[in-house]
Amino acid sequence: xxxxxxxxxxxxxxxxxxxxxxxxxxxxxxxxxxxxxxxxxxxxxxxxxxxxxxxxxxxxxxxxxxxxxxxxxxxxxxxxxxxxxxxxxxxxxxxxxxxxxxxxxxxxxxxxxxxxxxxxxxxxxxxxxxxxxxxxxxxxxxxxxxxxxxxxxxxxxxxxxxxxxxxxxxxxxxxxxxxxxxxxxxxxxxxxxxxxxxxxxxxxxxxxxxxxxxxxxxxxxxxxxxxxxxxxxxxxxxxxxxxxxxxxxxxxxxxxxxxxxxxxxxxxxxxxxxxxxxxxxxxxxxxxxxxxxxxxxxxxxxxxxxxxxxxxxxxxxxxxxxxxxxxxxxxxxxxxxxxxxxxxxxxxxxxxxxxxxxxxxxxxxxxxxxxxxxxxxxxxxxxxxxxxxxxxxxxxxxxxxxxxxxxx
Length: 408
Fold this sequence. Notes:
Blueprint (H helix, E strand, L loop, with lengths): L5 E5 L6 E13 L2 E8 L4 E9 L5 H10 L7 E2 L6 E11 L2 E3 L2 E3 L1 H5 L9 E4 L6 H6 L1 H7 L3 E12 L5 E9 L2 H8 L3 E12 L2 E15 L13 E3 L36 H64 L12 H11 L1 H18 L20 H8 L9
Parallel strand pairs: 9-13
Antiparallel strand pairs: 1-4, 1-5, 2-3, 3-4, 6-11, 6-14, 7-8, 9-10, 10-11, 12-13
Helix pairs in contact: 7-8, 8-9
């Protein structure tokens, strides 16, 4: 498909790729971006090359392709800038939960330039991203949508609450512009990213921006993301949002007579009141979300401390039980078995298989008594001092109840 502000040179059929690995800006030099595809065999290669139409004419772009051994067989020149309005936009609020997923800033920060040149689609539902990557026009037609613009100047604002910012350059589209004027135009980001648990992991790979008519059934999940008109006559820095609020609208001032300079029209006052109401609304939202974030951190910290204390208690109990078992068993172990470093080996064997170890002792004492049953009489084996029952079986069975001594 042709693009308004950049020439495109497709190098591979989108349908031949298992997935797309994203866009790398200036990969071929200033104003020359590469889009990478991953084939089914795992090989990554350049699927398409995009040229900034303000820096390269179609002839210059084709020459660059020839000089660098790339194909120009499917070259499409830029159609020309058909945008008539640019809107500074908070594409995505970051470092917070949206729905059940945590949108971490670092996941977006790894690949923020990839949002440049991403298409804006006007429809009431997102396209299937895999189908869109292979055949954008067919997929947009399937959802009864149309291309409405392009994303430029993406960056992450880190002053205040972090957020992904960009400019939406919208085409001449009367319906879209009317929805914007009526305050009914919303947007939603479309991208791919790995998710571990409920947290997004980078890098985020952008696909598109969906703009849609907001109604009772269609509302954005991210309440902090919205579109603001850009006034081309004002410095760009003064138009950006600081946090979610602090909106500076268009500077509208008439050349009034000197006597009217101090007076404000009813319309201006009404606009200021609405602007203040709008700012207060988002400020309250920020405070509420910050309180929820703090409560969640406090609960998590308390649970972590509780789990650590319980683990320490379990470890201490397990060690005490292991020490008692060893101390109860050690008097029955022949001294030669526990000499020097052998003691650790015997203890480990007892801890890993207590019943088997007691059976081992039983077999030892059984053999010892049978060998001693000669002319001088039978050898008597006495357990630890203080034992009431001198029977080997009886004493050993006390170490691990319910164990039958084998080897007789």
